[in-house]
Amino acid sequence: GRLEAVTQQMGYHPQYLDSFLKTQHYLMHMDGPLPFDCRHYIAIMAAARHQCRYLVNLHVLQFLRAGGDPQWLRGLEFIPPKLRNLNEINKILAHRPWLITKEHIEKLLKISEWSWSLAELVHAVVLLAHCHALASFVFGCGCEQDEGLGGRGSLKPLSLGNQCFCEATAGNSYSQELLRINRKRSLDSCMELDSLRERMQRIHVETEGRDEMRLLQQDREEGKGQGAEVGVQGGTEHCCDLSAGLSPLVDTDGEVTSATNLACYMQDPDFGYQDFARRDEDQTQVFRVQDYSWEDHGFSLVNRLYSDIGHLLDEKFRMVDGLQSSAMAKRQGCEPSVFKRGIWNYIHCMFGIRYDDYDYAEVNQLLERMLKVYIKTVTCYPEKTNSEMFDRFWKQFKHSEKVHVNLLILEARMQAELLYALQAITQYMI
């Protein structure tokens, strides 16, 4: 249950990594409105929207460790209606967040046997946005790269030993010296198969779930045309076919026993990003930050309904904004703050969020075409990121600068989803 590849990449910016880990730990493992098994299942649903096997695998294992019902891993048809009802806003937030309305919120909160509380819904929304944005980072930094594939040699995940990411919640939890040494090592582009198996062998299903897991294994073996094994895959690009989205499970002896199709965790798989700019020119549909902003509106609402998460999110937004990027900006011929704002506003613009005080002509001046193509792909449909795009974009950037761009994508995307969701909640409350 580790985010080793992610923490390796974020380790190039240790202060941000510390902030990210605190937020991740709080969302998944600290007191909050949602049960722990539900948190991981929501993360699975969110990651599946982008076919992110890396995150799905991680949260499948943590879901079982949290005592989750193994039957739920058969798909959305096997989970409680309350969780299944979250599918609609998961789909919308992941691909077209501007479509979310107070009616979606009202439908989840209405009085019924399966209704959500406001606090539960805010927790779920933050989880969804967090995992959607993290999927962008995973694909953008090559953490999803299958073992043994070429094309991304400079971005290699790293094992940080036995430390679990969720326990590293303070700056001194990671040795910066260790990070500096380990960054220089040349490792495989994904954890070795044997290493993956060894880690899984240490994770055991609770005693009371053993019979269910055996039955689940038999059901899957009977339902599959042929077996699939977690390991080396052929080819040089990500497989975007949902049927190839394999999520390893563990039997009572800790062995990898079966795989499940990512499609079982989502409905309406054809629903994806649609260019906001192609919509009818209706100015009322443009989200103006002057009318609803994170600082003036979103922060206070989310912090009131889910204690302290607002402070953690705000720290993370500020941390990424404060990262040094002088060399990166110099290559683009501008000031660091101007370059970062150009990337941030370009990402928000793709989701229909506009700043009245910004001249959007700057975007085309600051960001070359391949950079824009890369940012849009990683932001809007990260599962389509391929090695050719990756190689063409990275040429003039140092490793830490590549990670920095992906951190900007992660945080800008997450804030965009939160703004739409929290505005809809605010409108419902009013």
Automatic annotation (TrEMBL):
- Molecular function terms from GO: L-leucine binding; oxidoreductase activity, acting on peroxide as acceptor
* One Gene Ontology term from the biological process aspect of the record: cellular response to leucine starvation
Identify the InterPro entries for this entry.
AhpD-like (IPR029032), Sestrin (IPR006730)
Known catalytic reactions: a hydroperoxide + L-cysteinyl-[protein] = S-hydroxy-L-cysteinyl-[protein] + an alcohol
Keywords from the named record: Cytoplasm, Oxidoreductase
> Subcellular location, in the record's words?
Cytoplasm
Please state which protein family the record places this protein in: Belongs to the sestrin family.
* Protein name (database record): SESN3 protein
